[in-house]
């Protein structure tokens, strides 16, 4: 699978980058893939190609472009520090509108034949949640969404299927937060919340020491089944 950077027009008539990966058939349902704090780096680009190999048109927008374009960080201490600095400088409402611009572009692409879902990791997991609430995503997958508990007042705005993946060993997202998410979605018939007992934060990322192969494989299978049911 190959990918390339393309331009996305923002709501304020500017342009920002996004990494696009097309499926072998050249067309399919769309996914807006939302990065961690480490930018649209080698790992996120590889994840985009991975979903493209499953038949999806995947576009990963550069979420930090309003602070600094094309940030690509490693998973070391310096990368974590810089990533946190970029995340703290982001303007949340503008970031959500950038996701909407990305979703609108996907809908307009002739290669996109179905609906458009959002898949995000860590910071991106929370923005996938926001994409379902505010940016027009047709479904959302939220991997260990840091800070999502601060947005649970938006749950009534969500009318689309949701899937959450949490690590049971995740000290960044303790059990109290997971329970709060479960409680908030208790009346939502299309929400699934999975907890992986032996997994830590970031368990899906094979470039990080907390990568947990079994949990990542299980979560990936559940994600693909969810996307097939929700947007294909």
Topology:
Layout: E1 3-9, E2 15-21, E3 28-34, H1 42-53, E4 57-61, H2 77-89, H3 92-108, E5 112-121, H4 123-134, E6 140-143, E7 162-167, H5 175-184, E8 191-196, H6 213-230
Parallel strand pairs: 3-4, 3-5, 5-6, 6-7, 7-8
Antiparallel strand pairs: 1-2, 2-4
Helix pairs in contact: 3-4
Order of strands across the biggest sheet? 1-2-4-3-5-6-7-8
Multimerization status: single chain
Helical residue percent band: 25-40%
The overall pLDDT, averaged over residues, is 97
Query: H/E order of the elements?
Result: EEEHEHHEHEEHEH
How many domains make up the coordinates? Answer: 1
Give the overall silhouette.
globular
The CATH topology: Rossmann fold
CATH homology superfamily name? Alpha/Beta hydrolase fold, catalytic domain
Please tell me how large the radius of gyration is: 16 Å
- The CATH first-level class comes to Alpha Beta
From the N-terminal CA to the C-terminal CA, the straight-line distance is 20 Å
The major sheet is characterized as: 8 strands, mixed
User: Total number of β-strand segments?
Assistant: 8
Report the total helices: 6
* Secondary-structure arrangement, i.e. CATH architecture: 3-Layer(aba) Sandwich
Parts with pLDDT < 50 across at least 5 consecutive residues:
none
Structural class: alpha/beta
Beta content: 15-25%
């Amino acid at each position: 699978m190959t990918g390339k950077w393309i331009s996305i027009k923002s709501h304020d008539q500017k342009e920002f980058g996004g990494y696009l990966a097309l499926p072998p058939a050249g067309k399919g349902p769309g996914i807006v893939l939302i990065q961690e704090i480490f930018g649209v780096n080698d790992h996120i680009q590889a994840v985009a190609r991975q979903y493209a190999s499953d038949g999806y048109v995947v576009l990963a927008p550069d979420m930090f472009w309003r602070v600094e374009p094309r940030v690509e960080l490693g998973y070391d201490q310096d990368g974590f520090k810089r990533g946190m600095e970029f995340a703290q400088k982001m303007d949340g409402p503008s970031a959500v509108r950038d996701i909407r611009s990305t979703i609108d572009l996907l809908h307009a692409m002739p290669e996109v034949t179905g609906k458009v879902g959002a898949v995000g990791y860590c910071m991106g997991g929370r923005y996938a949640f926001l994409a379902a609430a505010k940016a027009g995503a047709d479904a959302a997958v939220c991997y260990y969404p840091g800070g999502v508990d601060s947005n649970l007042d938006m749950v009534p705005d969500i009318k689309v299927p949701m899937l959450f993946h949490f690590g049971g060993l995740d000290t960044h997202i303790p059990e109290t937060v997971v329970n709060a998410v479960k409680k908030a979605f208790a009346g939502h018939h299309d929400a699934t919340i999975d907890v992986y007992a032996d997994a830590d934060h970031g368990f899906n990322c094979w470039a990080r020491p907390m990568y947990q192969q079994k949990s990542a494989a299980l979560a990936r299978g559940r994600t693909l089944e969810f996307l097939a049911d929700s947007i294909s």
